[in-house]
Amino acid sequence: MKKGSFVTAMVLTAGLCTAVLGGCAAQKADSGNSGDTADRLGVSAEAISEESSGTEETAVTSEEESASTAVSADIQQTSAAAVSDNTASVITSSASEADTAGYPYYGMKSAAAGGNIVMPAPPSWDYYLNPEKTLPAVPVKLKLTQTVKTSNGISLAEQWLEENSLECVDMDEQYSYEPVYGGTYKDGVFGVNDLLELNGHADGEDALIATLDFSNYVFPDANQDTEEKEFGEQQVVWARSIGNILYVETGHYTYASTSKGKNAYITAIDLNDMSVIWRSQPLVCNSRNFEIVDGVIVCGYGFTGEKDYLYEISAADGTVMEQIPLKSMADQIICRDNVLYVHTYNTDYQFVISQE
What we know:
Blueprint: H1 3-17, H2 34-40, H3 45-51, E1 89-91, H4 97-100, E2 116-118, E3 128-129, E4 142-151, H5 157-163, E5 175-180, E6 195-200, E7 207-213, H6 226-229, E8 235-242, E9 245-251, E10 265-270, E11 275-279, E12 291-293, E13 296-301, E14 309-314, E15 320-325, E16 330-336, E17 339-344, E18 347-355
Helix pairs in contact: 1-2, 1-3
């Protein structure tokens, strides 16, 4: 892969992930993010590179700040060495119990308003299932009957949402979500949105409950080739919770080879102790969002020169239940009234949902 291709891909990525969770991304994307649009249109990086010649990218560098570990009065202080490999460590303390009442993880009482819960490195960069967790019942696979497959003339997602009277919101029953730029990288490596803010809205008003730090999810290989590494940082893309389980999409928007195929995951996190319940296999989710329907996660993966699929993933254990070929990469996925709407850069799909 030519270095110019990766430079172009990074330009496209920067425009995409700063707006992904604030209303299905497309509704909040800045009109100047033409690179993002081009990438989602499946245009080759080399072709865009010619149009983007002369654009210089300034590497964002910052020294990783040291932070002292503090815990609230009701939590015994522990050293970093005592923290479980699969349990998040809490950094700083500022949220009152009143602000976080009703939210499951006790550590969130120590993590709001600027404090971070640091997620440990993923237990695996392949499929992983925590043997110590009691899992919910495996859901029944959805039957998706295609009723619409229409060429859209390479339309933008905003137009598709409007034409179908659709709206993608950034909240569920417990939280609204916002990816935040962490900027913790140095040595010529770009910073990314590796923080996820959980804003509780159970009382009708949003209040920051916790900030989850996914900086350990950015690179699968610390020894990865430097030329490719700076264009393959994985970041928080989308999130949803059901009960005490938080489902988080992380990945990068360049070729899978940039991270040696270790890209585009969904990770299920237990909000009771912030441990990983399961992690999907790679290359299943780089759509701008996913939906959860009757215990099944519906998401999409694809890219220029790669195969494009719509996936059904079990929310219980993270296994792939079904994959449906698409003409191009799934961009937006919205479920309304038992109809699944899927937008890709050149084709619109609709599927009627039933259970087999």
